[in-house]
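Work through this:
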Amino acid sequence: MVGKKALSVFVSIVLLVSSLLAGCSKPASGTQGANKSVSDKKFKIGISQIVEHAALDSARKGFIDALKSKGFKDGDNIEIDYQNAQGDTPTAQTIAQKFASSKKDMILAIATPSAQAAYNATKDIPILITAVTDPVKSGIAKSWEKPGTNVTGTSDAAPIKKQFELIKELVPDCKKVGILYNTSEANSEIQLEDAKKTAKDFNFEIIVSGITSTNDIPTALGTLLDKVDLLYVPTDNMVVSSMPIISQIAVQKKKVVVSAERGAVESGALATEGIDYYKLGFQTGLMAVDVIGGKNPKDMPISTLKDKDTQLVINENTATKLGINIPQDLKERAEMIKGGE
């Protein structure tokens, strides 16, 4: 017969083991989907991209590569559903609603319209954003430091001051800078405000032309280029996706185009001093891994590219077409590419 003392010790051990097991099985607190075990079931990620162009495509690739670098591979332990709205905001909204109703574990929203659509569709599923200029002004986060919503990720806020310095180097006599932008894209409105403020330091006069569809571009651009010394292209998704035609018209009118990002230079703009969208997407992917591990987006600061160095890129083909001799000091610190042929 077991003594009372031995029985008491045995019961204590059983209770202790049960408590430890219960603690191990308890999921970490956080936003819905953030703590799902991918070892038992594939973690479902919906990717919504507003339009197809080089910068956004690079951000998406960087995101997926970051997941791979941490052991999350599509088809193995995660399942990626990639959808492209082809520049149509209502389609982006439909994609977001589909992701919400199918209960994705996470959404990656690439560019401001896709991010806003995703946030409008769900306040529970973790949303990672990238290529969004200002998440606070866009209404999807309460602050950069602590979003306070189910949204976190990275911003592609353009280094406009550096780009305006580049304009001065390429076209020293430039006085009037034209900006073509989509009037329905919040991202572009924000950049336009920043450009107007920065222009004062360079004595630039900003002349704008708003468009609502790609069909407006030839007419709007033809008129705008007659009024300005140079065209500046922000990270406006509608405009950047139409860079081949914009470059063609600008070359015909012998006007330089400076862009906010590399993809536009690859498609025919003359130059940029901008961020690397692949690195931006990769940084977002690492944040997604943290969310999968249990972190709550509402407490994760929204960041810009950690690598503060920008990259100068110049299109040699465009320079030749415009008859421009690139200063030697610019050539020495630039990546010279051939694009837009």
About this structure: The longest helix spans residues 4-25. The first strand starts at residue 43 and ends at 49.
